TrEMBL record, chains A, B:
Belongs to the LysR transcriptional regulatory family. One of its GO terms (molecular function) is DNA binding. SUPFAM superfamilies: Periplasmic binding protein-like II, Winged helix' DNA-binding domain. InterPro entries: ArgP (IPR017685), LTTR (IPR050176), LysR_HTH_N (IPR000847), LysR_subst-bd (IPR005119), WH-like_DNA-bd_sf (IPR036388), WH_DNA-bd_sf (IPR036390). This is LysR family transcriptional regulator (Chromosome initiation inhibitor). It comes from Sphaerotilus mobilis. Pfam families: HTH_1 (PF00126), LysR_substrate (PF03466). Residues 2-58 form the HTH lysR-type domain. Keywords: DNA-binding, Transcription, Transcription regulation.
Length: 299, 299
């Protein structure tokens, strides 16, 4: 079996981002940390870390890190059964890594985490990426579980449907008046500034294709990679865009934002994918995620 | 001089992320786009694009893209002077790239962009990164301007102070009661779950160093890479963390969040850095940013 101390050194360097910080946390010298990892690299015959700042994992390093996380989760289950409740010492510094999309984080993830923390006492380290790209985080072993747009399981993972996030095309009343009033839709959408989350976000383009067919207008674009900035920009009249319904119900009800195409929404199905591991912690996290999603997403 | 059509092809591929999408926007074939860029690469003797999905720029490609952006900004100034106001055709698809930190985006950036859009009609493409890392985006030529934590100018850029973002260490009243009531601060902070934005965020560690000296406790950690998720998590009682004052004044006033160390805050000075270019657009953007920051940040 692999040397657990060496695995722990690898994991700590990746969590802390440097050999110095890892050494401080492990109460050893940086050179001891470095030696343990080098021994592991020699034994396995591959490089595990990219020595940049912060230090990152090679593909092999990430796989090994996942292996360490799995052992850690299993040990934590063991500790829960063996130790008096409330003894948090064995959990110090451990967080379960999960990748989520930004709109989920802005709506139902925090309640799910609160529920999970109340039940397990554990904390979670979140990574945020587009729902079409969180699968890569899972595949590379960087995270333990992910909210994905794909129902196709990553090898070694199980998949649960979470429901669908519903999106509406919204803008401020002043923006609608200025750009859409009395105009042909195609002409209006070719000229009205459009909000886009980032380069990976294809939701607005998909909406335009569904509405206008194969026209592909190229309006002026804002890139706003934050769910709340996206809403703030819509309220300020900077552009139109597709917003997650749970966050904008009040804005629609109060007339602060108006639906540019009433009756037409886009549903994005989401899935919970996690590494198969018979662990109480993983089961609890999954149950909390499914429950919180059920209350927010379209079923 | 370099062929402008080839530069435009390079820029369009980088904006759209693929040769196919760039070709559609330029109304030519993907192979025509590819040929123009290859000719540029042969002339300059270096590779400009990494042919991944999405396509990204090499260091040389990024520098060339910046060059194209500079020409585009200068031409847009020219167009504004030569064309009747409101003719947006020449601006189609162009956005000025700017890197900002998440907490600025959540507070004063959207008002600044609204002001800028009203004056110039231009749109902006935002990249979000830690304020200690936005300088890299500027140096690599990926962005035209950035909110940075460093007053030291990137070569070729000018620097303006924006003021300081003030941070307070906050938690929910229930969290404070559970973890801090009647306890030694050092013992409490070693055990109370801590909110951290991401691996780059050192603000909580800095706060602990200032408060406790060189103790370096390692409490359980949440990673929550979103300004609003950070606040939602604090309100839900998941952990303590440093929050930007402009976003939490109401929470503090209403008692929804409490200050763990009243009278002790951390000020993070921010700067506006932008490429030196005698352009009306760049001047307007700078003026709007400085004005909006002045209303929100500590001067």
């Amino acid at each position: 079996m692999l040397d657990l101390q060496a695995l722990r050194a690898l994991a700590t360097v990746l969590r802390e981002g440097s050999f110095e910080r890892a050494a401080r946390q492990m109460h050893v010298t940086p050179s001891a940390v470095s030696q343990r990892i080098r021994a592991l690299e020699e034994k396995l015959g591959c490089v595990l870390l990219v020595r940049t700042s912060p230090v990152t994992a090679t593909e092999e390093g990430a796989r090994l890190y996942l292996h360490f996380l799995q052992i850690e989760v299993l040990e934590s289950d063991l500790a829960r059964d063996l130790q008096p409740l409330g003894d948090a010492a064995s959990k110090r510094g451990r967080s379960i890594r999960v990748a989520v999309n930004a709109d989920s984080l802005a709506t139902w993830i925090i309640p799910a985490l609160a529920d999970f923390h109340a039940r397990s006492g554990d904390t979670v380290a979140l990574h945020v990426d587009d729902q079409d790209h969180t699968r890569e985080w899972l595949r590379s072993g960087t995270v333990f579980a992910a909210v994905t747009a794909s129902a196709e399981p990553v090898a070694g993972c199980r998949v649960d449907p979470l429901g669908s996030m519903r999106y509406h095309a919204l803008a401020s009343p002043a923006f609608q008046q200025r750009h859409f009033q009395g105009r042909d839709l195609q002409a209006a959408f070719a000229e009205a500034p459009m909000l886009v989350y980032n380069q990976k976000d294809q939701l607005q383009h998909r909406f335009l294709r569904e509405l206008l067919g194969d026209v592909d207008p190229h309006p002026p674009v804002w890139w706003l990679p934050s769910t709340h900035a996206f809403m703030d920009a819509a309220r300020a009249g900077l552009g139109w865009g597709l917003h997650p319904l749970p966050l904008v119900v009040d804005d629609i009800a109060s007339g602060r934002l108006v639906d540019l195409s009433p009756g037409h929404s886009i549903d994005v199905p989401l899935y919970w994918q996690s590494w198969r591991l018979d662990s109480e912690t993983v089961h609890t996290l999954r149950a909390c995620m499914l429950r919180a999603a059920e209350g927010t997403l379209q079923q």
